Amino acid sequence: MTKTPDYFAGKTIVITGAASGIGRATALIFAREHANVVCADINDSAVRDTAAAVNAAGSQALALKVDVTSRTQVDDMVQRAVDAFGSVQFLFNSAGAAIRRSKFLDIDDELMKKTFDLNVNGTFYAMQAVLPHMVKNKLGVIVNMASMAHRRGGPGSSIHYAAAKGAVVTMTMGVAREFATQGIRALSISPGPIATPFQDAAQSSPELVQRFLDDVPMKRFGTPEEIGELVLFMCSDACPFMTADTVYVNGGGGWR
Q: Model's pTM, two decimal places?
């Protein structure tokens, strides 16, 4: 996975959305590699559970209750991470959701605003907060959670979410290119359907979930751990020339 043994040992990653799903799985994978893990989520009790699991694995964790739609809270998150561990080398913006499913003509201002506040602004605030620290140290990798939806447009259920994730992909590309000469890499991941609490939170119907599954040639959903291992690779020293791209992880589906 890495060119350098114990590459992640003693380095620090900040993970938003760490209470469950992909964020939690990624936290435990980085704990396996002996990284310090800053676990941030709006769900206080669940993020503390993740941090406890990181500590139980032998790594150091910091649990923070953070609403990523608040710039003040995100700024404080990064500062507390730096105060606790001295520096931050990696940021994984995993926090995000479709809020709820909706046909296009039923998308109202509130749904659009909440979707962009969480998925776009949350990512934007975290990158702006951590980049000065990374630039100072001339080292950093940012991985942002996008979605296959940005390629498909989300017709019939999630155009608002697809548009937000399209903005994440574009913003990631721009940051990667702007900071490419300063030791910073930025990438996004665009998964197909992953077995997480996301579908229930978005109020996906059983029929829609089945349609997602039917579209995957492998005939299964991905797992949070599969995405977490990809985040680990992206942050490692095995791919120093990799930046600005989004990586599609979809079991072969999602291109119609």
A: 0.95
